[in-house]
């Protein structure tokens, strides 16, 4: 489940600093089901709400994944990732990782300072202290909102095989999220058939994955660019994370971008 949520790794009609219309707004919520073949092994929920941090407005994204049924009896998982983002820059100001998997526990808060230094960001981790990184660095959640707002609206410029990289800070280290564009595909979900843009995140070959293309993401081919499905092909089989319902979208699901 932790590997799923890492890749999993993902919201008001408003304008960003450069006047771009956003693809998401607070109030957006998406529910998912995790399947291992015909077996339901867990559920997930991704939501965005308005919040405050140090007296200023932020957008608070939270993704929760947990086991259900027999999987919950065998190996209980409750993983939560949170990101508090500046609505204007879409950069994280606070990130929380709260992992509960069997007897394993890990809780960490990272604060992001994007303003004190022009040439870098200053990160303060509860577990490992101060880190100086490249400027405008994302966390694992905020990078997908950035992807929806700054990459997918320009899908016409993407060619099959195009590789997009967003640098993030994850598990207290630099973690590049690299997404390779595959093309368009109609995906059948419990919420209906949806035309999507398909991407393969570049995965590390080894214990879980046989190739660099064993994970696939599908984003709705409309103005929402909603993550509707993820598939993980691992050594022991295939997992899917599939949208079952949603609410609070800016646009009707399936509204074309043209």
Task: Tell me what you see in this structure.
With 258 residues, the chain is mostly beta strands. Helices cover 8% and strands 53% of the residues. It has helices at residues 2-7, 69-74, 142-150, and strands at residues 29-36, 39-53, 56-67, 77-85, 92-101, 104-113, 121-125, 129-133, 138-139, 163-170, 173-189, 192-201, 215-220, 227-234, 237-247. It is globular. The relative contact order is 0.16.
Q: Which assembly state applies to the chains in this document?
A: single chain
Return the CATH architecture. Beta Barrel
Compute the number of helices: 3
Strand order of the largest sheet: 8-7-6-5-4-3-2-1-15-14-13-12-11-10-9
| Average pLDDT figure | 86
Instruction: Provide the low-confidence segments as ranges.
Output: 1-19
Structural category is mainly beta
Short description:
Helices cover 8% and strands 53% of the residues. The protein is mainly beta. The protein has a 15-stranded mixed beta sheet.
Q: How would the blueprint of this fold be written?
A:
Layout (H helix, E strand, L loop, with lengths): L1 H6 L21 E8 L2 E15 L2 E12 L1 H6 L2 E9 L6 E10 L2 E10 L7 E5 L3 E5 L4 E2 L2 H9 L12 E8 L2 E17 L2 E10 L13 E6 L6 E8 L2 E11 L11
Parallel strand pairs: 9-10
Antiparallel strand pairs: 1-2, 1-15, 2-3, 3-4, 4-5, 5-6, 6-7, 7-8, 10-11, 11-12, 12-13, 13-14, 14-15
What descriptive keywords fit this protein?
mainly beta; YmcC-like fold; 3 helices; disordered N terminus
């Amino acid at each position: 489940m932790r590997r799923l949520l890492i890749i999993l790794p993902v919201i008001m009609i408003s304008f960003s600093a450069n006047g771009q219309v956003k693809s998401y707004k607070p109030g957006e919520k998406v529910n998912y089901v995790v399947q291992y073949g015909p077996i339901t092994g867990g559920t997930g929920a991704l939501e965005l709400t308005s919040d405050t941090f140090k007296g200023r407005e932020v957008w608070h994204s939270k993704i929760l994944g947990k086991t259900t049924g027999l999987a919950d009896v065998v190996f209980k998982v409750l993983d939560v990732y949170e990101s508090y983002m500046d609505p204007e820059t879409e950069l994280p100001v606070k990130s929380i990782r709260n992992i509960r998997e069997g007897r394993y526990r890990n809780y960490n808060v990272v604060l992001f300072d994007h303003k004190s230094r022009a040439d870098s960001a200053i990160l303060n981790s509860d577990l490992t202290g101060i880190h100086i990184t490249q400027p405008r660095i994302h966390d694992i959640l905020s990078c997908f909102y950035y992807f929806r707002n700054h990459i997918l609206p320009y899908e016409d410029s993407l060619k099959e095989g195009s590789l997009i990289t967003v640098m993030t800070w994850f598990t207290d280290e630099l973690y590049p999220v690299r997404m390779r564009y595959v093309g368009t595909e109609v995906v059948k979900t419990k919420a209906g058939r949806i035309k999507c843009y398909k991407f393969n995140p570049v995965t590390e070959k080894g214990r879980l994955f046989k190739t660099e293309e064993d994970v696939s993401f599908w984003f709705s081919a409309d103005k929402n660019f909603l993550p509707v499905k993820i598939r993980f092909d691992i050594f022991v089989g295939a997992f899917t994370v599939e949208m079952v319902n949603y609410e609070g979208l800016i646009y009707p699901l399936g509204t074309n971008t043209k």
